[in-house]
Specification:
With 361 residues, the protein is of the alpha/beta class. Helices cover 49% and strands 10% of the residues.
């Protein structure tokens, strides 16, 4: 699959200067290929919108963004009534440049939308259909990213949040990376990005979802769901079934038309609350042992916390040190030694470790 090769480059460019936001960019790719939606929960000022904008620009997409408030009118998202048609007795909406015509949408503070807005959004999210008055159109939407400071408590809003299959919880940059954040953030202020790929290329990958063979993981995945249920974590049938799309997308991104046990890691992000994700990570520890992804390795590692999932990131960081030098060499070496013994160290990483040691002796 020729289009897969560009994914890593897109993620690098989208997150340049934004410390710790590779996970978000990777999940945007995963969601776009699976054609499911992503909910990001975290405090303001954590570069959520900046990464989304970069990803949209890199993929050369028709992009719509809006910050919702209590008094946001439906017309601000979906378009105003066509006055010419109204005079003729027809209620039609002019959707040009608005959400119904977007391929990627970012809705900040999504749960502040009125009932009228959320009901209309449900049709767009679930069916890719916009219905208002006499206007009924098919929407080209590939992915909607919703953002909020916290998950809602209201039952109706909880049901709306369930329409976002992937839930990502993010925090501000930790204390030990503040210097990196300052340097990177300063560079990001003056960094512009160009289109590196297109949604057409992602759609070409997405079109192959139906061709992914799931036979090898159905029983394995079913056992994981049973184990979660035995420990009090119950997912809706809809979420359980739709997760297969994420598993199939992970396999495709890894260059395969057959899903394997290493592709089950997206299940972590389908768990809807932070508590469920933290508990689920422990419960599913044995199921996640083999997890890895050659392109989405930050998302895989943070979901599973397994040495196998760290391999590709450590290889990339080791190569960066060899090419660019810098103070991170000893840090990378310590992390390699913390995750692997001499006997378990994979051959590609063993060779890189030897080269890194030569740089510091």
């Amino acid at each position: 699959m020729e289009h897969v090769s560009k994914i890593r480059q897109c993620i690098k460019v989208a997150t340049q200067g934004f410390i710790g936001r590779e996970q978000l960019a990777e999940l945007i790719i995963l969601a776009a290929i699976a054609q499911e939606h992503l909910l990001v929960i975290g405090p303001p000022g954590t570069a959520k919108s900046a990464v989304v904008r970069r990803m949209a620009k890199i993929m050369n997409s028709n992009y719509f963004e809006y910050l919702l408030g209590r008094f946001t009118e439906p017309s601000e998202l979906f378009g105003t009534v066509n006055l010419k048609k109204l005079r003729e007795g027809t209620v039609e909406t002019d959707t040009q440049g608005m959400l119904p015509e977007a391929e990627i949408a970012f809705l900040d503070e999504v749960f502040l939308g009125s009932t009228a807005i959320l009901n209309t959004l449900l049709g767009i999210l679930n069916e890719r259909k916009f219905r208002r008055g006499h206007t009924q159109i098919s929407c080209p939407l590939k992915i909607c990213i919703g953002a909020s400071n916290s998950l809602p408590q209201d039952e109706e809003l909880v049901a709306f949040a369930d329409r976002f299959l992937i839930h990502l919880f993010i925090d501000p940059v930790t204390d030990n990376f503040i210097e990196d954040m300052l340097v990177g953030g300063w560079q990001a202020e003056f960094t512009d990005v160009d289109s590196l790929s297109s949604l057409t290329e992602l759609s070409a990958i997405s079109d192959n979802l139906k061709n992914v063979n799931l036979d090898n993981i159905i029983s394995f995945y079913a056992d994981a769901i049973r184990l979660l249920r035995q420990n009090g974590i119950i997912l809706s049938d809809r979420r359980v079934v739709k997760t297969l799309k994420l598993i199939a997308a992970a396999a495709l991104i890894n260059g395969r038309f057959e899903a394997q046990k290493q592709d089950i890691w997206p299940l972590y992000y389908v768990l809807p609350t932070l508590d469920m994700q933290q508990r689920g990570q422990e419960i599913l520890n044995d199921f996640f042992t083999l997890s890895n992804n050659s392109q989405l390795f930050y998302a895989t590692e943070l979901a599973t916390q397994q040495p196998n999932a760290r391999l590709q990131r450590l290889i990339e960081q080791a190569n960066n040190c060899l090419n660019n030098g810098g103070v991170r060499i000893e840090h990378v070496l310590r992390e390699i030694d913390a995750n692997y013994t001499i006997d378990t160290l994979p051959e590609p990483l063993k060779q890189l470790r030897t080269q890194l040691i030569k740089l510091i002796v």
